[in-house]
Amino acid sequence: MKIERVELRKIRLPYVTPFETSGWREDGSYAVIVRVDAAGITGWGESPVGSSPFYNEENTNTVWTIQQDFLVPMLLQADLQGPEDVPPAFARVRGNRMAKAGLEFAVWDLFGKLQGRSLKEMLGGTRDRVPVGVSVGIQKDIDTLIRVVGNYLEEGYRRIKLKIRPGWDIEPTRAVRNTWPDLMLQVDANSIYHLSDAEHLARLDEFNLLLIEQPLEHDDIFDHAKLKPHLKTPLCLDESIVSPAHARWAIEMQACDIINIKPSRIGGFVDAKRIHDMAQEAGMPVWHGGMLETGIGRAANVALASLPNFSLPGDISANARYFARDIVHNPFTLNEDSTLTVPTAPGCGAEVDEAYLDEVTVERWEMRA
Ligand SMILES: CSCC[C@@H](NC(=O)CCC(=O)O)C(=O)O
Ligand SMILES: [Mg+2]
Fold it and tell me: Domain Mandelate racemase/muconate lactonizing enzyme C-terminal, which positions (predicted)?
């Protein structure tokens, strides 16, 4: 099948509160929303990039350029038997995985609608609900942090992730642990530390954390393997794992105990599923990360998180955690057991609110076959 039309949109969708990590602060979604059309069917996808290239090497503008100049023409050329044919069509383009992923997601959604199959079914999901938690950004002080965490626990979330950085790591984590001794708690450093911080990072071991996420450089596996023996807490990689090859290197080098899987970081579902399966083979648990997606990317994430080796709560909160109003008519709401319900509708299950999407679109582009 040939894709007949591709439409890209830059959006501005404000977060209910800004989100701060060790390296940047973002006030809203600057994602690129992808629409593909063929045979009278529309598929939707999202490249969940930020305004700056601070999480990985991509941002709104790199996605916008690479999609328009290379990936969309390649996609329109391709004769697709299924969404698995999308990555080979993009193979000549190095990196730019969020740009690739947004387009691939949209083609998965399209084929699901064409075949009457949910994304969960297409990907091999086994769960009807997926356990989720909340990622809590860096706060102005510890009292505020305790209040913010308390509010999320009130809402019913059972797992909390804290962003940390030098000067905001041991004491905030201690304060949360002391307030909630039995809480499922983990931390994410977003690559801000170095191997020389090993002893300092080992101080986090006293807090009985589920994991320490991506403490060292965003493109490192070797030093994480050297760090791991210093830690009792399980070590999780996020930014470093951008392909099945990276996952194999990390597993074989014993560089981590757990992998955070984000199909956007990895370039799409095909390779994300490969990493899920490799980790399962190796007896390594994975959990689903988040990139503050709108309801379009969020639905894609929930579908993937329904696969069997996703064994720790994911960073896939209800849409309202970020958006007062989302670009979908059917936002996720948190179930009483701190899970989200996996959509069963054909495709990703997101019902796009096109009128509101138009309102939050700041730039639009399209290309036809
Ligand atoms: C703006 S990029 C945020 C990347 C960060 N993501 C989260 O903390 C989860 C955010 C979410 O709730 O989607 C991570 O490194 O895991
Ligand atoms: Mg992370």
Answer: 142-234
